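Hi F.,

I've been meaning to write this up properly since the lab meeting, where we talked about keeping a consistent format for the predictions we share between groups. The idea is simple: the sequence comes first, exactly as it goes in, then the structure tokens exactly as they come out, then a line or two of notes. No screenshots and no reformatting. I'm using this chain as the first example so we have something concrete to point to.
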Amino acid sequence: MNTYLESSPFWARYNKVAERADKPQRAKKARPRYEKPECVRAFENEYNAHKYDSKPNFPEYARVKTTFRDDTANGLAQLIKMHGVWNNYFVGRVNTTGVYDPKTGKFRYTGARKGMADLSVLIDGKPVQVEIKTGNDKPRTDQLQTAAEYEKAGGRYVFVHNFAEWLQVYGQIRHIIGENI
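Output, unedited:
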């Protein structure tokens, strides 16, 4: 074999990949199949039924059906955001992750406070911070501290695990707002 090739970075990477391929792989545990809850299915059907209302001449065969899931944090955040668009309330995604700096190889601090919620929601003037927890995800101490401070200041900070919980929180907030009008 050519000594130039053997000393090249490509050849070193190839050897590492080949070594890993020889090792036995651990079998991944099969996750249980996701079954869409009725509330998600109902929202999805309503959303798709009215999605093309402003385009009546759009052919039925060319219409794309939008699907939603609430078993992942991103899926639930997207679902809550679309529910907000549909029901005329503000939803903003909060990014608290640092910015990656390739020079140092680390994430740079962005100035975002630890414990901030995933979504910032404003329903008829009532501020709500929504922290999404799915699977085995548990609230961190800084999130619990931020929640206590936010509620002390007059806002509402909620932990949501699925879309049904969000609909319950949304209904409670709408009920409170209705009583104060």
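Notes:
The CA atoms of residues 1 and 7 lie 11 Å apart.
The chain has six helices and six strands.

If this format works for you, I'll send the rest the same way.

G.
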